[in-house]
Amino acid sequence: MTDPLALDPVLPPRERSAMPFNDDALGHDERFGHFEDHVVGGGKVEATDWMPDEYRTAVLRFVEMHANSELMGVLPEREWIMRAPTLRRKLALTAKVQDEVGHAQLLYRVAEDLGKPRDAMIADLLDGKTKFHNVFHYPTKSWADIGIIAWLVDAAAIVAQQALRDSSYAPYARTMKKICWEESVHIMHGRDVVVTMATGSAAQRASIQEALDRWWGPLMQMHGPRSDRAKDRDIHWRIKAKTSEELRQEFLGIYVPRILELGLTIPDADLARDPETGVWAYGEPDWNELRTVVTNHGPKSQERLDFRRQNWEATQWVRDAILGPPQAAAVA
Amino acid sequence: MTEFASFESIAMDFEGAGHERALAILLLSMADDEFVIGFSDSEWTGIGPILEEDVAISSLAQDELGHAQALYGLLAETIADGRDADGWAYDRPPEGYLHARLLDHPRGDWAATIARRYLYDTADSARLEAIAASSHAPLRELVAKIRREERYHLMHVQTWIERLADAGGESRARLLAALKAMGPDAGTVLAPLPGETALVRHGVSREPFAVMEARWRDEVGATFGRLGLPELPPTASPDRPRTDHSDAFRSLHAEFTMVRRSEVGATW
Amino acid sequence: MSPADPGVLEAWEVFRREKDGDPMRHGGSVMAPDAKLAVHYAREMYSRRQESVHLWVVRRGDIHDLADLDLLQPPLDRSFKKPGGYVMRDKLAAAREQSGQAKPKANTGHKGAR
Predict the structure, then answer these.
(1) ipTM for this prediction
(2) Chains with ≥3 Cβ pairs under 8 A against A?
(3) Residue A127 falls within a domain, yes or no?
(4) B10: buried, middle or exposed (CB in 10 Å: 19+, 13-18, 0-12)?
(5) CATH number for the domain including A198?
(6) Does B45 touch chain C (CB under 8 A)?
(7) What is the pLDDT of residues B114-139, one digit of tens each?
(8) Which residue from A94, A203, A326 is facing B45, i.e. has the nearest CB?
(9) Does residue A22 lie within any of the structural domains?
(10) pTM (2 decimals)?
(11) Any idea which fold B7-230+243-262 has?
């Protein structure tokens, strides 16, 4: 069994639970079988449990990309913290971006305990070896974008995250509960910005519509192309529960009516709900654009990665200072 | 937008005689201090040196902005000219702001942020102590709440200045450079305000700023002595008007009023 | 338990009490160079929305755990230690029959029996 990431669990096994797959005396295949039965049967896995490399790697990849997305997702909104038009909006936006940094921390902690140090994950992100979600590769052009992102990007994300609260990897599932609780505030903040502008001046209304027009495509691509449930390893291991299409349908079902009730127009002539089946039809999202963007060829991919790199390098001395042993105070 | 040509005109702009005008200037200068340091600190949100610290500095920024919001609100009640807290916070030209020159320094590196936070928080703490028993009840009540939050800020910044000083090497060198750049402006937080005799006479403040400054310098001196840091210099050009701000602040002002200026009077 | 390698932030486990009277529960963990900053960061990560009234941080290496089922869930009978280990329905029925008294109505307790 090869381990593509050569991961060693950072947590010592200590006393493992008496799950059959934790029995060191068994052969690998037998352990693997017990583990698979446990997970497929709805069982939970803790960081100290034995787990096959396939599972460890799959969870790590999933959580690492999620963590990367939170960390990179900070940047498009961060630019507007300085420009927020009222004290309350500035406070709300600062708190939201702070939460995203906090979510990155929670998720990197989960990933770190699977065996990959935080510095290594950040290095891989900055080197373009690991990915982050498509929506964070686009520019934020106006204050209206801040409303659309906080409302709809976060809504699309929360649909996916709610389905992860029952993940087989228990530390991730617990983290998702905390994250979902915090994200629900972001959606309120975003919706409030959007509703305020949609009921504001003609220019504000036009600005919101323009932002929605730009973000709709990336939003529809966000959950990814339709996939075969039976072939999805992450679903097999119960790391996640829903396919991309299930998530997209759920998002459309909740949010299309809420967008339309504001008198906004969704830029997709084919968007319609089948009254019989309840299934949404929509214009085919641009999957080429998605592939281009997530491989760091999006409109802001390199600029954002450069910005992160510069800031990471510029603060390296701080990390060194707090880690190094205290030295005798030098003569001033 | 209300035009203010100079600090003196701001002072004259406030209706009411004696200590009420002085109270308004005190509130505005404190609110502007908190507003501007809150802005500088919020620039770290998303790019802090470690994730945990990123979240921490963002909380400090939010606390300071919350204090600014409350102080502007109190000012709006005091002046009652139709401007609300946001109107005070945003709708003035750069020369209408009364914050201390210490806060005109741009964000800088982490050492500059810690140095500024340390110098400001300790000075602000001396100021809050002086008005904690203020005769002006709304101010007294607000100050009690602000001090509860500032206690955490002091704990946080104390830990950091010690770490940066004790780590030696690049860390200490950066801290020394930041203190050298900001030290001469540190005392401006406690620079006298017009009408402060009226404030003391009416019990709004228990003491003039010079007394607060002396107390603050003793405290900082003790900490710096312990950490082997050079003594703080006296305030450079103490007569430079409070409304004379740096280019860094002018750029900051242009940015933070950008959306609001795009449509004057709109609801956001 | 040895401390982490020098040059690596240590993991500190955070325990939180959500409201007065609740037990401390595990919240998650933070990375910090010492206890002082660990406490600061615990506050930031686990109570910035006032969701805790009390926090503990414990260096992960200082936790000693036990998850051995033979020790925690011994295989032999321990029913005498639990209320469910005392089944006397049939015996009570026999006793009531013997004394000629009816079974008290459910959930009415002593009052109903009087």
Answers:
(1) 0.93
(2) B, C
(3) yes
(4) buried
(5) 1.20.1260.10
(6) no
(7) 999 999 999 999 999 999 999 999 99
(8) A94
(9) no
(10) 0.90
(11) Ferritin (1.20.1260)
